[in-house]
Structure formats: structure tokens, C-alpha cells
Amino acid sequence: MCSAFQGLQGSRVMITTRREDVAALALASRRLQLQPLGRDESFKLFCSRAFHNTPDRKCPPELEKVAGDVVKKCHGLPLTIVSSGSLLSTKQPTQHAWNHMYNHLRSELQANNHAQAILNLSYHDLPGDLRNCFLYCSLFPEDYAMSRENLVRLWVAEGFAMKKDNSAPEEVAEGNLMELIGRNMLEVVERDELFRVSKCKMHDIVRDLALVIAKEERFGSANDQGEMMRVDKEVRRFSTCGWRDSNTVATEVEFPRLRTVISLGATSSSTNMISSVLSGSSYLTVLELQDSAINQLPVSIGNLFNLRYIGLRRTNVQSLPDTIEKLSNLETLDVKQTRIEKLPPGIVKVAKLQHLLADRFADEKQAQFRYFVGVEAPKTISNFKELQTLETVHASKDLSLELKKMSKLQTVWIDDINASNCDDLFKTLSVLPQLSSLLLCACDEKETLSFQALKPMSEKLHRLIIRGGWAAGTLKCPIFKDHGKNLKYLALSWCNLGTEDPLQLLSSHLSALTYLSLNRVSSAGTLVLSAGCFSELKTLVLKSMPDVKQLEIKEGAIPCIDGIYIVSLSELSMVPRGIEALGSLKKLWMLYLHKGFKDDWDQKEMHNKMKHVLEIRA
After folding, report:
1. Helix (H) or strand (E) segment spanning residue 209
2. pTM of the model
3. What is the tens place of the pLDDT at every residue in 516-554?
4. pLDDT tens for residues 272-284?
5. Residue 179: how many CB atoms within 10 A of its CB?
6. For the chain, which residues make up each domain, given as ranges?
7. Residues 389, 301, 325, CA angle at the centre, nearest 5°?
8. I need a labelling partner for 461 at 20 to 30 A (CA). Which of 2, 118, 330, 571 fits?
9. What is the edge-to-edge ordering of all strands in the sheet holding 146-147?
């Protein structure tokens, strides 16, 4: 969809539906009934998937007949065609292999409709672990954007991804995800700075059919209505978009075989239901209550010996019960954006913990310097020998000594850093061998940190987020001058660069950046993107930079840019010079700028020059 300045001609709003009663609400002249693809279009689409690994994506002559037969059976339905092509792309391109698969397809078509037949064939062609991963995705709500990181942790907790050879379970799980995407059973929604899948989703038709299989195989069920009493008491996994337990007697809810509970956005704050589920489900492995109104976790959770995953993100929980120390198999604890300020001291007994995610919003409008704050780090946090993710903890005087003993750390987020402890802390962070993502936040906006001691030995460090002031000459420090070639993602907030141009300074050291964000950064009045700079940059964010009056984009700058987000630059009164030449640009946000900006846009007739940009917001 294109959303732009008022008066911009050519914008359209399109609504799609598979229900005729919904379509009937529109005038007949405004309704368009999509027809199946023609023979040539169907064959071309099929080949684009079946032969996507070949340079020309063309069907070999010896396979044309069987390929044509397969396409004919799809009756012009795009989802069926793409699924068939994805399935056959995994087979050897021989007549024998393809004819064998086509015979299976014909058998399925005799018993099911076209979509069901293709899904059944695609599903049964999966190895056992991939089948579990696929069915698991159907437990999330329709059109839900699933986080790659979250899926990987859940699959590992469920035992769907085990260590293979030299590959860790997380790496195996990511491989499973890419296999499902390659087979067109999941769709990519968003990618990150390393071009890894960041979010994905399951097509609603595929989900409907997957839920049928999940129920038949007693794998699990999804109750989108949130009515717990309708759930099969023998179910092993269930999900709900928020249960309603006000009229339910707690003793009526017992699931003795239950392994997984996923309840996203439960509207009831009562703990009766969750207490009942926990007391009657001694084999529970996963408890995901993200975005629920729950405000307390029952003490009985400590009895769940098999529990490996707890997700309480964006809930109202204020504290964790001391009994959590009994969860010796717990691998993931996600309490981000809750009200928890301090973790129980006994949590360090959970020796298998791999991912600890904890912070809370101090200012949900994100106007304050420390709009989110971490939790107080447990005194003997180094007991977490297996910990890979640590988000977010306060910088205490003993933290650097503890971190030295935690060699498996990959993601580390630390706030409340002051000038007196930053050297020791940065020296410790520098020697972490697996470090890949780092956030460093000063104790307040007036604190000046020195980054001279930050000399990371890990070449995996690709993401760096810094909030707070820094000493003069920081951009000449090793983290930028020597390690800059490894950085892909850089976000700077509240730092003072005086009258210098940060884009010019950064571009000389950070040629591999794909994401750059500058927020509340003091700088020169004119920012310049020079020819050839940031050759891999996909996303540029400039926000709340009060000094910026002009932005110039030279020919040949940021050639791969996908999105530019210019927000709250109150002095920017002119359209960025050269922006119309960015042929790769797909998204452009220009919000809360100088009042003269719109006049300059209209005067230069930018709406005619920017027709190639799919989304413009202002």
C-alpha cells in the first residue's frame, strides 16, 4: 500500500477475501474476482520454484511432460503451483524421481481437494523433525509474524532440534526453518542486517490444513476463541489467543499429557486458570504467555521439573516466585518489558539457563534517555555457564569479573554504565570469544564513556548499540577503526559529535553496514552521503537530530538502500538533495519535519519523481 502526502494521486486501498458475503459489501463495479492462472503463466510460475537453483529457471526437455502433467493437476491455483514446484525442487531432476512423485500426487488428488493433496504430499515428504517444526507453527494465530529467534528457542526446548555433528541445536533449528521456507511451507516477512530471516508466517490456507493434520496426529490444537473447556483433555500442545476463565471452575481444567501452552494476549488477569493448568500438567515443557494480562506466576511452577521455556514478555508480572530456582532444566526465561526489577537470588541455581531476557519500560513514550532499564544482575551470575543471551543487566562493580567466566555469551546488553567502571567492563567484553551482539547504555545522558578499551577479539560481533555520551575521538577507537569492517548493524543515541558530520565519519570505517540509526545525535547542520559510501546499507534512520538542516545524497551513494526513515528533524525544511535518484528505495518516511518541508516537496513535484517508491509516509 502507498500512503503519502495529502493530494497525492494514484493511491489505492485493496481488500482481499475468500468469503463472498464480505465481497458482496462492495459495489459490483468495485469487485474483482480473481481467476486461476492460464496454462503458460502456471507453467512459468511452477518452473520458477521447481528450478530456482538453476541459472535460467527453465525446465529440462526430458521433464517437460511430467512437469506439464503436474501443473495441469494444479488447475491454475497459485498456492498449489508454488507448493508443487517447491516440493519437486527437493527431488533429483530425473524422469524416474518426478514420475514417482507425480503418481503419489494423483493418489492424493483422488482423496482430497487440490490444496489438501499438495499439502499432504509436501508434509509426508518431510523428515520427522521437520514435520514437528511445521505443525508447531500452526499453533500461532492466523497471519502471526513469528520471530526466528523465538521459534528456534521453542523448537530446541521441545526437542525438535538436537545437536548434530558439530552443529549446535540452535543451528540445526535455523536449518529446519530455512528448509521449511525453501519448501514454501513458511513465508518470509522480514530479514535482519545479516539477511537472515527475522520474521516469518504461515499462509492462512496452509495453517488451516496443518491444524487438521495436527489434530489427527494428536500433535496439538489451536483454539482461536480462547475457550479452554472445549480443548481435548488428552491434548499435548494447545494455543489460544487469550483464554477467558471468569466462569470456569479451576478444578475442571486438567491436562495430564500437556507439554506446551501458548497463550498470546490472554484478557483475564486472574491466575486461577494458569494455576490449574500448571497443577494438572506435570510434564509441561513450554509456557508462553506473551502479551497476556497475567500479573503473577504461581508458586507451583517450581514443581514443573521438565519446564524448559518460560515466556512472559509484555505481561504485568512484577516478580518471579523463589521456587523458580527448582527448574533445573530451564533453558529460556523471557521477561522483557515486564514490571520485574530484580530476579530471585536463587535463580543462579538454574545451571542450564541459556537465554535470559529481562528489562522493563521506564518510559513507554521513549522520550527519556533510559526509556527501558535492565534488572539487577544476580551476584553470582557466572553460575550460568551455558548462558548465550543476557539482556539487560545493570553494570555493577563485580559484573566484569563475573562475565570473564561466561565464555559462551553471544548477546550482551548492559545499562547503567558509568565512566569509572567502563574500562574494566569493556576489557572483559573484548575477550568474549562468541560475542555477536552488544548494547551499551550509560547511566544518564550526561555521562561520558571512553571506548578505547573496547577491542573485541570476536569477529562475529556484527551488531552494536550505544546509548549515551562518548569521549572525543571515539570514532578513531579500535571498535570503529579496526573492527568496523565486521559491523553490520549500528545504532547510536544521545551522543555528542559537536559540529562533525557522522555520516562522513562513519562511512570511512563501516563499509559493511546494512543498518544505521542515529537518534538524538548532535552534529553538523549539513549531512552528506558521498559517492560510493555505505555500499551495502539497506536501512537508514535519522531521528530527533536538532542540528540537521540539510541532507545531501551524492550520485552513487547508498546504492542498495531499501528504507529511509527521517523523523523529528525539526530544522529540515528542504527535500534531501538527490533522493529521487535512489532507484532501490522502497520505503520513505518523513515525519514531524520543519513546516516548510511539505511546501518544498510540492514545489519540486517530488510525487512525480518518486513513483518508484512503494511506501511514502509524511
Report:
1. helix 204-216
2. 0.84
3. 999 998 888 999 999 999 999 999 999 999 999 999 999
4. 677 777 877 889 9
5. 18
6. 39-124, 142-208
7. 55
8. 330
9. 146-147, 197-201, 187-191
